[in-house]
């Protein structure tokens, strides 16, 4: 019997590739940049399984050409790069990689929150520029993290993991979500709030909601105007959940105090983006889950999902 063909759109852990190779012919895009669109479309035509990254657009155009495709395994928990409805219509299974990245992403969320609150990157730039001439009572003063109020927008697994960290800092935890989470309320004492109330009460607003038509630009000018002038806004979900122009205005006009951003509407964020000109923005290149161990686990889970579908079994983490 002919082996199925799997296309892997970036170099991922060898263990993951080896596991798929046991049952399939594996073709890997070896270059250290996303596979160009034209090549991805051509590869998809000859592929039974696609191990994709969040930078690969798996849309109607691609799916209509991918006549043999049975499974798209996204190496990410988010899957807004995939037209899941179009895939399902064609009987193509979509999978993602939840759970394995929860703790690493929560660590990064907290690091970003603290860096923005305590002006870590600004202080580092200040020192390296030779501006540190003496200690001063107000030099690079930031905001308290301990005992502050954290507002989590999107209380999924990562939200709960962030809440566990916040508990260690004595923070009060508020959350809003499509539905209430009694387990989270029990485990970390989180209290449910409608979005507007959360925005008014929180010292830290952390975005952890997936990007969907309902959450696109859910935080804009009106929402920023509800937040405290001392508040810090952190986005580790997707850039599309926030109106970036409104965020820039809120920061520049001191409606809010600082922002920590791991994600942007357009990635990589252009270097002339207005948000990058502000000293009170800590900007990172979408590294939420980027630890060696976690990326290894994500690749392995994507491989297990691909192989399961190609062997006619249920994937572990279907979308
Ligand atoms: C995800 O998995 O969706 C993250 O954004 C990747 O780091």
Automatic annotation (TrEMBL):
Does Oxidoreductase appear among the keywords?
A: yes
Cellular component annotations (GO), alphabetically ordered:
cytosol
- D-isomer specific 2-hydroxyacid dehydrogenase catalytic domain: from which residue to which, for each copy? 6-319
Which residue numbers delimit the D-isomer specific 2-hydroxyacid dehydrogenase NAD-binding domain?
A: 110-288
Say if the entry is tagged with keyword Oxidoreductase.
yes
Which keywords describe this protein according to UniProt? Oxidoreductase
Sorted alphabetically, which Pfam families does this protein's record hold? 2-Hacid_dh, 2-Hacid_dh_C
Alphabetically, the GO molecular function entries are: glyoxylate reductase (NADPH) activity; hydroxypyruvate reductase [NAD(P)H] activity; NAD binding
Family of this protein: Belongs to the D-isomer specific 2-hydroxyacid dehydrogenase family.
Protein name from the UniProt record: 2-ketogluconate reductase
